[in-house]
Amino acid sequence: MTDAAIFAVVDHTLLSPTATWADIKQLCEEALVYKTASVCIPPSFVKRVKETYGDSLVICTVIGFPLGYNTTLTKLAEMNDANENGADEFDVVINIGDAKDHHFSKITDELTVLKQAVGSKIVKVIIETCYLTTEEKIALSKCVTQSGADFIKTSTGFGTGGATIEDIRLFKEHIGPHVKIKAAGGMKTREDFVDFINEGASRLGTSSAVKVLTGGESSSY
């Protein structure tokens, strides 16, 4: 697998709370050079990136991030604001407490509302696998499928663990045919990237791809 093929599925990510405009601009410049799938950035930078780079970049942002326990109305306001500011893709954190309480219909309803708010734009659902049982992951695969969302995503990168190959395999068994998989967090080497792609991940959420693939040291998600 070529480096270009890997970069083509990378959501080049910077979600640090201390990220500055200079940091975000560097991320965007790298994304242009290496032709990544998108840049994944905090909502507060979406409008400025859109104004600076126009349609030359796919802009992904996060909703309800990183803990997911915002109300549906709050998440909807975030979605609408980011959409108006020029975001192309939205990575939404589920309410993990609802998942632990097995209120799966509530999660499906919330995701349905959020997907409908942005129409054909891509919605990726972060279920934060490190906190979940196998049964909960299976149930959430069904929630994502039923909501019409486009991707199921493993992790925020801010939890106690990142993506695992076992979770990618589990997702493949239980998501609907229209749902794709995004692996995020914990990928440190080129071999990690290749393994997750080969297992079926259509996107990789990482801040490390440029450093790893150009010979530098990996960085945190």
Summed up:
By secondary structure, this protein is an alpha/beta fold. 45% of the residues lie in helices and 16% in strands. It has helices spanning 3-7, 21-34, 46-53, 72-85, 96-100, 104-118, 134-147, 165-174, 190-199, 209-213; strands at residues 10-13, 38-41, 59-63, 89-93, 122-126, 151-153, 180-184, 203-206.
Question: How does this model look, in words?
Answer:
It is a single chain. The chain has about 220 residues and is an alpha/beta fold. It contains ten helices and eight strands. It has one domain: TIM Barrel (Alpha-Beta Barrel). It has an eight-stranded parallel beta barrel with strand order 1-2-3-4-5-6-7-8, surrounded by six helices. The protein is globular, with a radius of gyration of 16 Å. The two termini are about 20 Å apart.
Q: Which features would summarize this protein structure in a list?
A:
221 residues; TIM Barrel
CATH architecture: Alpha-Beta Barrel
The whole-number mean of residue pLDDT values reads 96
CATH superfamily: Aldolase class I
Secondary-structure-derived class: alpha/beta
Low-confidence stretches: 217-221
> With helices defined by DSSP (H or I, 4 residues minimum), what is the helix count?
10
Q: Cα distance, first to last residue? A: 22 Å
| Outline type | globular
Q: Please bin the fraction of helical residues.
A: 40-55%
Q: What's the level 1 CATH class?
A: Alpha Beta
User: Order of helices and strands, N to C?
Assistant: HEHEHEHEHHEHEHEHEH
Strand content: 15-25%
User: Strands across the major sheet, in which order?
Assistant: 1-2-3-4-5-6-7-8
Number of strands: 8
Largest sheet: 8 strands, parallel, barrel
CATH overall fold name: TIM Barrel
Q: Measured on Cα atoms, how large is the radius of gyration?
A: 16 Å
Number of domains: 1
